[in-house]
Amino acid sequence: MFGLSDSWTGIISAVLIAVITSFVTHNLAILKERRLQTEKYKLEILEKVYTPLYRSLINKMIKDYNNPFGYSGIDPDLYNDIYNIYKQHIYLIDPGLEKRFWEIKAHFEDEKRRMSEMKDEHFIQMDYEYRFIRYVSYQYNKMRRKLNLPYEKTYFKYHDATYYTYNRVIMYPISYFKGHKIKKDLEKYRQSKSTEEQSER
């Protein structure tokens, strides 16, 4: 090897093998540590975020069991559960879940204003298009699968295509018209209230 004696060739080869082995071992150790750390975070998210949310949603479904259409959406009690989980573990909330939380919060605030203005004690529940419950159920099972925990296998087989078709073709139009009707009724009420106040003057 490059005019070196067999002894020096053996020494250089041994050093190179040791360096390469050390490099590979070090990088494998880093990758293993990262994987363990990632699994630790996923387990923490599952335990502190998705399991409590999933449990609260299951309790709501049990509560709505005798309703003609079953789960009827997010009421004030369920909203408070969701809000507390979000507030306590905000550092573990993923962007998709956070987006859905703010949608629920906006609806909840709008409903409080509507009920106050219209003197209406009936709260219109959120999530009638099932965006929140579907997202939580999917992420709950997805994390359990990644952590090698029992999960609902058939859910993943049909979820993606069915979820897209169901939301885009069926639930989004229903959600739009329901929301549009609520806003229209509120505008009519405000206009009639304004007309009454002007006539009284």
What does this structure look like?
With 201 residues, the protein is mostly helical. The protein has one domain (39-195). The protein has helices spanning 6-63, 76-88, 95-118, 131-146, 153-200. Helix 1 (6-63) packs antiparallel against helix 2, helix 1 (6-63) packs antiparallel against helix 4 and helix 4 (131-146) runs antiparallel to helix 5 (153-200). It is elongated and about 110 Å long. The mean pLDDT is 77.
Q: Descriptors for this entry?
A:
201 residues; mainly alpha; 5 helices; elongated
What share of residues are in beta strands?
A: under 5%
Q: Which outline best applies? A: elongated
What structural class should be given to the helix and strand makeup? mainly alpha
How many domains make up the coordinates?
1
Helix content: over 70%
Gyration radius over CA: 28 Å
Number of helix segments?
A: 5
User: Biggest sheet, open or closed, and with what strands and sense?
Assistant: none
C-alpha termini separation? 107 Å
Order of helices and strands: HHHHH
Spans of 5+ residues with little confidence (pLDDT < 50)? Answer: none
Instruction: Summarize model confidence as the mean pLDDT.
Output: 77
- Give the number of DSSP strands: 0
What is the secondary structure topology, with strand pairs?
Layout: H1 6-63, H2 76-88, H3 95-118, H4 131-146, H5 153-200
Summarize the structure.
With 201 residues, this protein is mainly alpha-helical. It contains 5 helices and no strands. Helices cover 79% and strands 0% of the residues.
